[in-house]
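> run fold L,D-transpeptidase
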Amino acid sequence: MNLRVKHWVYGVFCLLVAIIVIGPKLHAASNAHPKKAVVESQVKEKPTQEKNVNSSESHMRTPIDWHKSSETIPYPDLSKVKDFWIKVDLKNNRTYLYDGSKIIYTMYSTGGIYKKDPKTGKMKSVTPTGTFYAQQERGDSFFNQSLKEGANYYVSWKNHGEYLFHSVPTKADGKYNEREAAKLGKTQGSHGCIRLSVPDAQWMEKNLPVGTKIEIVG
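> ok
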């Protein structure tokens, strides 16, 4: 074997050794960066997850208690609210207090039961939907003799006493109908009015300004 061939064989041998010894190290090094990127990505996502905890309903009282306010924080000070209005979501059993586009308080509520509309064949709430305005009629209690049902802390929003915000219903003896009260925030059940917890209804009666816009959807 001449010298040139020996050099060629030796060169090939060295190249094979380099591939066998150094190759795995290079592969391991190349995989290190993606792992680091994954870890950094997870770290960056944590603030977003924490932010989601502070949602509009993060202060809602659970389980629902019709004896108490819907949120565990104080009611809003309307003297500091620039653009106050209310949205009632019949299907989701929530009443939202807004300042412009921002929800400032959420109340558990119960609207009218759903019945089939003879004209369309679709299920429709007996609570009217649309835009209404808070009216001056309000008081501490009432009893509807024809319905054998009453409530406390009411304020009218349509037909001057026909459709109201009021507490969960009371019976003829003035005691709360606990079976109906248990529906609050969970399902529909009224004859058309919007039922609220006792403290929420009391706050509405005392604080809801006449003329406040009320949008009812669902």
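Confidence is low (pLDDT under 50) at residues 32-54.
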